[in-house]
Design brief:
- The protein has 8 helices and 3 strands.
- The protein is mainly alpha-helical.
- The chain has a 3-stranded antiparallel sheet.
- Helix 2 packs across helix 3 (53-72), helix 3 (53-72) packs across helix 7 (125-139) and helix 5 (97-112) crosses helix 6.
- The radius of gyration is 20 Å and the shape is globular.
């Protein structure tokens, strides 16, 4: 009987330790400082589930850097092709694994922030517009080879990150 209780307590401790990793930060806590601009835990929680925040921190920093660059270049994101919610948020009759996963994620995040899933998606588009404007400005428009374009875009963002490491302070571990 003692073994069962000990084992149960051990399992509970492991579970609590795992959960604590995601919840030990408040939304107002600063996750990173990128060239003097704070990125909060709340911003990351808006974009990702708690258990994926750390996995997506570097990518979000790259997005913030691209936003800063695009703004410094005074790029007009209103000229970017408008992404309509129906282009991003899958229709109810779409029953693919990706569509279902996207809807499930949006619904969970929207519930977490007390908003409609479509509105959640609209609010997440600003960084994407800036990143695409920056990439387009730096390497040109997408042509016939999307894979090569994606590779060039990713390399551009990787280089931007590496070039600015001395101006990035990651405070979340």
């Amino acid at each position: 009987m003692r073994r069962i209780i000990s084992f149960t307590l051990l399992c509970c401790f492991i579970l609590l330790a795992g959960c604590q990793e995601a919840t030990k930060y408040d939304d107002k806590d600063v996750a990173a400082i990128i060239r003097g601009e704070e990125l909060t835990v709340g911003e990351l929680r808006f974009l990702y589930p708690d258990d994926q925040i750390l996995d997506n921190l570097e990518g979000t920093i790259k997005g913030k850097l691209a936003m800063q660059e695009a703004k410094a270049m005074q790029l007009d994101i209103s000229e970017e092709p408008t992404v309509h919610v129906q282009d991003v948020y899958p229709a109810e009759d779409s029953d693919t694994e990706i569509a279902n996963g996207t809807r499930d994620f949006a619904e969970a995040q929207a519930k977490k922030f007390n908003m409609e899933p479509e509105k959640y998606f609209e609010r997440t588009q600003e960084m994407s517009h800036y990143v695409m404007a920056y990439i387009s400005e730096m390497i040109g428009e997408l042509e016939d080879n999307p894979e090569a374009y994606t590779e060039l875009g990713n390399q551009l963002l990787d280089d931007l990150y590496e070039d600015n490491l001395d101006e990035i302070e990651i405070l979340m571990e």
